[in-house]
Design a protein that fits this description.
The protein contains five helices and no strands. The chain is mainly α. The N and C termini lie far apart (about 55 Å).
Length: about 110
């Protein structure tokens, strides 16, 4: 018998989509990560991390500030008890996000 009262949100059911992660931006990030030569597992991890970040900040990834990125990593470490296995992950994720933001909002 199927559950009729599913409490999980769309973003929890699908690790790549979230309320604040526009499909067009997710697709562009996905393509950029594929072109960079990352493995599928790494690619999926980055997309999931960016979706989690956008859910945490409650805004599109291309609008997230460095301060919000820092708060997200502090949240992962202090509130969720996660250990970042790759010391350069915050810097790499920040680089991906800021490259996308610069593309969407070029300096005048």
């Amino acid at each position: 018998m199927a559950k009729s009262n599913n409490r999980r949100s769309h973003s929890q059911n699908d690790p790549q989509h979230g309320a604040y992660f526009p499909e067009k931006l997710r697709q562009k990030l996905s393509e950029d990560l594929q072109l960079s030569g990352m493995s599928k597992r790494t690619h999926d991890g980055y997309i999931r991390a960016i979706r989690q970040l956008s859910d945490f900040a409650k805004k599109s990834p291309d609008k997230i500030t460095e301060h919000q990125l820092r708060q997200f990593f502090l949240h992962l470490k202090n509130d969720r008890g996660l250990v970042l296995l790759h010391a350069n992950l915050p810097a790499r994720l920040g680089h991906v996000l800021h490259a996308q933001a610069a593309e969407h909002h070029p300096a005048s």
